[in-house]
Amino acid sequence: MRKWEEKRAEEISEYILVTHIVSLLLVLMIIFSFYNLPLGLHFSVYAVAVFSASVIGIIVYVSRKLLPRVSFLGHPHRDEILLLTIIFPVTFAFLWYSRNFFGAKVLVLVPIVITATSFGKVAGTAAAAVASALLFFLDYRVYGSLPAAVFQADSILTGVVVLLAWLVGGLMEVERQTQQELLRLADYDQLTGLYNHRYLQENLGGKIREAASSNLPLSLILLDIDQFKYFNTVYGYPKGDQLLAALGRLLQEEVKEPSCAARYGSDEFALVLPGRGKGQAAETACRLKVRLMEEATRTLAGGEGKPPFKPFTLSVGLATYPADGNDALSLIRAAENDLFRAKYSRDKNYLYHSIISEISAMKVKEAFPTLQVLVALINIKDRYTFGHSERVMSYALAVAEKLPLSGEEKETLRYGAYLHDLGKIEVDSAILTKKGPLSPEEREAMQNHTVWGAEMVKPLVFFQEISQILRFHHENYDGSGYPDGLRGEEIPLLARIVRLADSFDAMTTDRPYRQALSLEEASRELLRHSGTYYDPALIPPFLEAVKEVYGEG
User: Fold this and answer.
1) Angle at Cα 215 formed by Cα 214 and Cα 221, nearest 5°?
2) SS3 call for 433
3) E strand or H helix at 247, and its extent?
């Protein structure tokens, strides 16, 4: 038990103990009052005996309650039960013996208060009902009937004891529930329902000591959601919370005692598996990874049933006692190192998405240098397109000077033209550099780069206009393009400009499957496809602009 728990339990126990002592002293006062015993040094032997027995009883009760091994929350209430088995019959025996001594009826409060403070509202109210019924019964036996004055007095007393039992017992139940809720808040993560990081840190050491005393292994698994920031940005934080809650529920169902699951970080979970070696833990991790990925995909799809564009994946780190560490700190460090290796020893796509995730809140100018690195990586994958992005940007900006575009639109065009092939990061190098014609599957993969590029920058708050260029720069003016088959002015103007610039540079650059065209040949190709592939209104200013660029070259 933690210090704050112990302090709270001790304070509550103290209040209850004082209440019980005062109740017992009340019994003594009523007895003394009934016998008109004098106060002072001239007590009768009978009074001394009663007083001594009462004091001894109180001392024994108090000493037992103050023993360190006794706590309010975990105590089975043996002492209270023993006290009630004595005080309840003694109270009604005294009421019977005292007959019409009305002051003795206050004694009914004593067992009621003890019951309510010890066992709660229901038990206290039940005890009040039983005590009231016995009170009416005793008065009926004493008087042979229930005179109006006696009936009224008993009724009033009944109302008082029932109300007192309900109030005191209710307050004690509220306190117990509050105590349990505080424990839950201290130990559990509110979103996922799993243990929290603090609990894991505090209890992992104890689990390791148990494993050492039993000479058994213990494994620690870390599960990390890859690019969780991406899902938060694309789907919104409420959906991200819904996703974490769904994964937490699944882990609660799958991980049973003596194992435990905890939320280790904002997007990480930890599993402690006593008695399982590395092989068994690896099997468990693989099985849970598949289940979690399936659950996450269902949650992200929602009611529409549409799977997320970016697949949901998890990284796993595993460490085992005693092979990887002999204490909690070293075991956690070993699992974190294994998780890091699992994350960053993959293909480069993970690194790409990590970069996108990290710059999601940046403005365009802040994020652009980072994205330039990604474009450079595309150039490395496809040496035939080296410098392609820079040239497309220069052609697009040149024609922009011939058009009535605002300064903001020119900036958007600048970045969109440079990043238009960003989605090719996801395309296999063999497809990018293939000399022969592409198969249908390869062509589909190549065409998907427009969608992939737009989706990659979708989490970037300030790139929404740019994402349209990335998605629509292969749409044809007659609607025969991809990915959405837009036609005419349905295609954003800036995407139509990049469509021209992209095609022109592809025509005038050597490719694996053909030699570069001359400026005149490329110009004729553009004019030949005017109104089909390209916006006819843009071709004259575009050709004028590129001839100036070539002339400067």
Assistant:
1) 95
2) coil
3) helix 237-254
Q: CB atoms < 10 A from the CB of 531, how many?
A: 14
Q: Give the Cβ contact number of residue 527 at 10 Å.
A: 14
Rg (C-alpha) for the chain, rounded Å, is: 40
Task: Please state, in angstroms and rounded to a whole number, the distance separating the CA atoms of residues 505 and 415.
Answer: 17
| Contacts by 474-481, CB closer than 8 A, 24 or more apart | 474/447, 474/450, 474/499, 474/502, 475/499, 476/532, 476/533, 476/534, 477/531, 477/532, 477/533, 477/534, 477/535, 477/536, 478/531, 478/532, 478/533, 480/532, 480/533, 481/533
- Who contacts 117 (Cβ-Cβ below 8 Å, separation ≥6)? 16, 19, 20, 124, 168, 169, 172
Tell how strand 260-265 and strand 268-274 pair up: antiparallel
Residue 242 buriedness (CB in 10 A; 0-12 / 13-18 / 19+)? middle
Torsions phi, psi of 373, nearest 5?
A: -60, -40
3-class state of residue 287 by DSSP: helix
Helix (H, G, I), strand (E, B) or coil at 270: strand
Q: Record the tokens describing residue 349, joined without a space.
A: 């796509």
State the chain's maximal CA–CA distance in angstroms: 132
Q: Is 458 exposed, middle or buried (0-12, 13-18, 19+ CB in 10 A)?
A: buried
Check: CB of residue 112 under 8 Å from CB of residue 124.
yes
User: Which structure tokens are listed for 95?
Assistant: 């009421």
**Of 386, 474, 377, which is closest to residue 427 (Cα–Cα)?**
377
**DSSP at 437:** P
Distance CA 413, CA 493 (A): 10
pTM over 0.85: no
Residues 6+ apart with CB under 8 A from 281: 219, 221, 273, 318, 320
Q: pLDDT per residue over 507-545, tens digit each?
A: 988 766 668 888 899 999 999 999 999 999 999 999 998
Q: Output the pLDDT for position 235.
A: 80
- In this structure, what DSSP letter does residue 524 have? H
Query: Of all residues in the chain, what percent carry a pLDDT higher than 70?
Result: 74
For 112-166, the DSSP string reads HHHHHHHH-HHHHHHHHHHHHHHHHHHHHHHHSS--HHHHHHHHHHHHHHHHHHH
